[in-house]
Amino acid sequence: MSMKSKISRRLEEILTALPLKEGQRILEIGCGTGVLAREIARRVNDVYVLGLDRSANAIKQSVSGSRAEISSGKLQFLKAAIEEFEFDDNNLFDFAFAIRVGALDGRHPEIEEKALSNIAKALKKNGKLFIDGGSPLQEIDIRKYR
Question: How far is CA 102 from CA 22, 81, 105, in A?
């Protein structure tokens, strides 16, 4: 078992609330510096996590702090805005999550519809989307976007 690294109590609560299982493909939207994506890759066996962020600087920090996890094949980061990103239909995700992402929390309603549509396309048939704002997470119903 790998050593637990120090993350904030809030992020630990979010991590604990996610339905993590071995063998999953997980999408993090708005990964920032990659803290949660990296922790999932460290803690869960046989998992693949893709972290997306629209900030080139955030992606640079994510990559530099995650070299071991990236080289293991469990983790990848891409600079992309969720409302513009095209997913590969052959590699769908078990679930997606987004913490403090303006495209999904009401701050940017003009791109929310497109973002939700893209997320729905990226998920397996029973895939789920979680965002912050519950205790600590809430599930967003994406059925109408499928």
Answer: 30, 11, 5
- pTM tops 0.85: yes
Give the number of other CB atoms < 10 A from CB of residue 50: 21
Give the confidence band of 4 by pLDDT, cuts at 50, 70, 90: low
Q: pLDDT by residue (tens digit) across 41-56?
A: 999 999 999 999 999 9
**CA angle in degrees (0–180, nearest 5) for 126-106-115:** 45
CA dihedral 79, 140, 125, 38 (to 10 degrees): 40
Report the C-alpha gap between 131 and 98 in whole angstroms. Answer: 5
DSSP state of 2: P
* Distance, CA of 65 to CA of 127 (rounded, Å): 28
Omega within 30 of 0 (cis) for the link into 19: no
